[in-house]
Amino acid sequence: MKYRPLLVAAACAVPTLATAAGSNAFNPDIALILSGTYGNFQHDPAAYALPGFPLADEAGPGDRGFSLGESELSVSANIDPDWYGMLTYAIAGDDTASVENAFVQTTSLGHGLSVRAGRFFSGIGYLNEQHAHTWDFVDSPLPYRAFLNNQLGDDGVQLRWVAPTDLYSEFGAEWLRGDAFPAGGSANNGRGTWSAFVHVGDDVGEGSSWRAGLSYLDASSDARTTASAAGDDLFSGKNKLTVADFVWKWAPEGNSYNHNFKLQAEYLHQSDSGDFTPAGGSALPLSRKADGWYVQGVYQFVHGWRVGLRQDRLQADDPGAAFAGTALDTQGHTPSRSSLMVDYSNSEFSRVRLQYNHDHSGNATDNQWFLQYQMSLGAHGAHQF
Amino acid sequence: MKQIQAIFAVLLLTAVIAPVQAAGLNVFACEPEWAALTRELAGDHADITTATTAHQDPHHIQARPSLIARLRRADLAVCTGAELEIGWLPMLQRQSGNAAVQNGRPGLFEAAMQVDRLEVPEVSDRAMGDVHPEGNPHVQMDPRRIATIAAALTARLKQIDPAHAADYDTRGADFARRWQDAMARWTDEAKPLHGVRIVVHHKSWVYLFDWLDIEEAGQLEPKPGVPPSAGHLSELKQQLAARPAKMVIYAAYQDSRAAEWLAREAGIPAVKLPFTVGGTGGAGDLFGLYDDTLKRMLDALHESR
Questions:
Q1: What is the CATH number of the domain that holds B265?
Q2: Domain residues for B274?
Q3: How many alpha carbons fall within 13 Å on the CB side of residue B127?
Q4: Is B5 part of any domain?
Q5: In this complex, how many residue pairs, one in chain A and one in chain B, have their CB atoms less than 8 Å apart?
Q6: Phi and psi angles of residue B263, each rounded to the nearest 5 degrees, phi first
């Protein structure tokens, strides 16, 4: 093929705005995530409880045997010169489907500002905003399970501002409907929950980069229901959650192809105040604090192969004798878990993972094994740090 | 809660009162070759930051916080385009909150989209590996295409920074002259490479081969983006036994082991090429990139004779 110059002279009066058209011209980018899990548990995961922590619907350890994981269908595109939009539809193994993300976001406000509206994963913490298929372990860390029902996504608006500084500094605030755990019941006419977060980050030399964050969530509940063995528990009041997060990534000379390492840690602290009504009981005034953390490291030791280690732990104050036998009764237990995983990526679009949990989060210590595949089809997604 | 409010307030205040004042045009270059080209064309008018180094694979870059911060302040992003940066640049664009560098704006310059691209696939199927629907994006190794891109970039600099338009014209014309001279010299020096068969690591060299009329004798990667496998390498070795090649080349950021294995087995040299500015000691700027690339290939050609 002979070379033909498209643009000849530097003196060209009208510059050509040649830009990427994308793979489907004007059609949105479509991406599909397929995932499936095989789970092996010593104890029946259906009977799982986390003593001291009322759990919402998503917050279990998984299913026994073969199960379809969450398949995600994502459609996204620039809407016009000023807006970007995205929909992620999650189809669970039990044939239920839900809108995980459906938001529009400004692209041209400038000055480092962007506004998002719709349903989205909250910007609090580090892992919360990452889609489950980019997680390094099959399941979420215990504090995410206990405090956020794995991942907080709600309806609302979000404002973010990146400061014009050398050091990456981002400030964000969200005003949410309050329909997602730890909120519930859309308190204050569906605008009772808000959050604020700040992220800073930078590089250290050519090989390392880090991000640290501090977030605060003020969740209001109006008759929030959580399931317990005896039936539905109700909670009305406030959950105030503070999250400190840190992630550090390293690769030799910044080239992550063969070797790379990622260290990630988060600390979550929650204070609850309000009325808790255990199933079949009467309202009990509740005021207590709980916290939890996890630390995980993932190392790619040869192209395609990674090994990861995670430790997580939860601790809750005993709310008092009146709560004996309810989901808030810690039974003197401090939940903890250790996890080990190995995964292999045949390409950047496919991954197979083996994970072992030594799970001391429920009353009985459980040994859990998972085998998981995660595949992505269609548009090439760009991932967050 | 009070303490957290205080921390937020202090951080916000620091960010508001401590913005960095840029000297001139803030340019975010996705790859070192475009940083080097912008430096040639804009000189002191541009304050250039480079997102990647020659030791990193531009396909696989993390959308790091530092890059968001730098793109946030950019007046112009100079990137390859053609989906080379698809795994990270769109995330940076969305997170930066910078209207100037969004798709379709003059502040986003995509070098590969200014020139004819080779290997535009008729069918895009990932079973073929990581193929780019827009064609092969690695355009920087053809000096004729660099000349075209330079002209387009000069026009873009004038559009974004009209106050210095005359300067950009002068610098652009000066670069074009020096580049044409160098190109004539390179074309002459590279004559012995015409028609030579060369094995490549990744399909990164089609534009260099198009310019110098070099024949690609095979790829170490069985499919684009798929790492070399033992089976594929021994197949390649057999092909080379039937139809020999003169050398195996790989980019500075790529793992040299596969190239060295095949080179040893086939009795030909394995040659590390800079691929971009900074990839080797000799490739200090765009001119050095071509000088050093040709020198290394010609040296290997002498060695293999």
A1: 3.40.50.1980
A2: 190-303
A3: 2
A4: no
A5: 225
A6: -60, -45
As beta bridge partners, residue A378 has: A31
> How confident is the model over A145-178, as pLDDT tens digits?
999 999 999 999 999 999 999 999 999 999 999 9
Of B4, B14, B99, the CB nearest to A107: B99
The total number of structural domains in chain A stands at 1
| Edge-first strand listing for the sheet containing B270-273 | B215-219, B197-200, B247-251, B270-273
B-chain residues within 8 Å CB-CB of A300?
none
Report the amino acid identity of residue B81: G
pLDDT tens for each residue of B209-261:
999 999 999 999 988 878 898 999 999 999 999 999 999 999 999 999 999 99
**Cα-based distances in Å from A155 to A101, A176, A190, B37:** 9, 6, 9, 46
Nearest CB neighbour to B66, from listed A81, A202, A380: A202
The model scores a pTM over 0.95: no
Residue A263 has φ and ψ, to the nearest 5°, of -115, 135
Burial B42-70 (b: 16+ CB within 10 A, else e): beebbbbbbbbbbbbbbbbbbbbbbbbbb
**Quick check: B98 and A109 CB within 8 A?**
no
Nearest to B118 among A1, A347, A381 (CB): A1
Chain B environment of A249 (Cβ under 8 Å): 62, 64
ipTM for the predicted complex: 0.88
Closest residue in A to B225 (Cα) is: A347
| Identity of the residue in A5, A249, A381 whose CB atom sits nearest the CB atom of B62 | A249
**CATH number of the domain encompassing residue A223:** 2.40.160.10
Q: Which residues of A touch B65 (CB under 8 A)?
A: 168, 199-202, 209-211, 385
Strands B76-79 and B46-50: unpaired
| Minimal CA separation from A43 to chain B, in Å | 40
